[in-house]
Amino acid sequence: MGSRRRRSRRAYGIGVALLLSAALSAGCASDPAEPPPAGGGRPPGDGGGRRITLTVGVFGTFGLQEAGLYDTYMRLHPDIAVRQTSLTRNDVYYPQLLTHLTAGSGLADVQAVEVGNIAEVLATQADRLVDLGTVPGVDRRAFLPWKWAQGTGRDGRTLALGTDIGPQALCYRKDLFARAGLPTERGAVGRLWAGDWRAYLTAGLRYRERVPDGPAFTDSAAGVMAAVTASAPVRFYDARGALVVADNPAVREAWDLAAAFARHGLTARLQQFTPGWDQAFANGSFATVACPAWMLGYIQDKAGPAGRGRWDVAAAPRPGSWGGSFLVVPAAGRHRAEAARLAAWLTAPAQQARLFARRGSFPSASAAYPLPAVADARHPYFGDAPVGALFAAAARGVPRAPTGPKDALIAQTLADTGMLQIDQTGRDPDEAWRATMKTLDNALDR
């Protein structure tokens, strides 16, 4: 969706980074076959022969319209018209969505929700949403179990259907690894740190020893912290919904490991999604970066033609996910049944594979992974890396971690109040931890 802020990449207005259709080859060169409408037959009109118009509210460059999915749906359903409304930033879109859900008015028939907000929506708005798990054509077995769980409330109703996800890898500069005498082939690079984020630190120390005055090993300590946290089975909330960020050993281990990167001078001391970070890609200022699937397009855009063939992709030490969204159907809508069928169709495996082929958004429906558009996808900019298979393997390994209503706020505070100061000013990690926990207590009214 600041330094490794856990917002959707769409919140940063980087839809251009998802234009991978020209870059993905093999299976992504052709779209999957269009399936019949979800649920079998064509949805009815309004009973009077008039065409029903369904609206879809999204934030940023969501990709559904750009991939032509609405046009296809209207061809399959001549008595349905689909219109999209969009706000550029999720931090503007989301408060309005909450206000409209509470009021029961001003809503689109289908609304997008970013993963960092989904737990709050389910906790506070469940009675204002349609149960999508019972819509004809929706099969929970087609989705990754952890993604399905994120859209399911405590009462067992599935109120949100997953669109995309952000399975993580590590992108690296082959030329800089060669300069440091490190492996450059992606399989060997992945074995450098397989299974252990501390081995990633060890690789960084080897790199710095051999390239003492060259580019940094990684972009930011906050980026490391967020990637490590994303691979933990428990993060900021436990399975009962209790806030555990201050007492969770996994969060503190991620903090300490990231601080070690800063302490050893392995980072470029950058803040992610700032102009300086963008320019650093073009300047070759660092050798590795935590890399969700959607960031491939971002790197290609910022590093430009000079980076082609220099960047590659390897498996991360442990799987995690950064980013992704859902579709919900407000119960206050006039055309709830038709809207639910549209949401089910848009999130079906074939449509998710097509969205990946045309826009680079990685599917949350694991049933899409065997389809050629995903399974055979390669990325020429990254040395013809088999990105479909690589990110599918990462997605299947993401732990089923509980989500909480303030995940996005907590992640942003950890990054910007705490880790950024350690990275850029050398603040003591223990002192920064205490200050960050106090800031969180105040922000969460604890």
From TrEMBL:
Keywords: Signal. Residues 30-50 are annotated as: Disordered. InterPro entries: Bact_solute-bd_prot1, SBP. Pfam families: SBP_bac_8. Residues 1-28 form the signal peptide. The keyword Endoplasmic reticulum does not apply. This is Putative sugar binding secreted protein. It comes from Streptomyces venezuelae (strain ATCC 10712 / CBS 650.69 / DSM 40230 / JCM 4526 / NBRC 13096 / PD 04745).
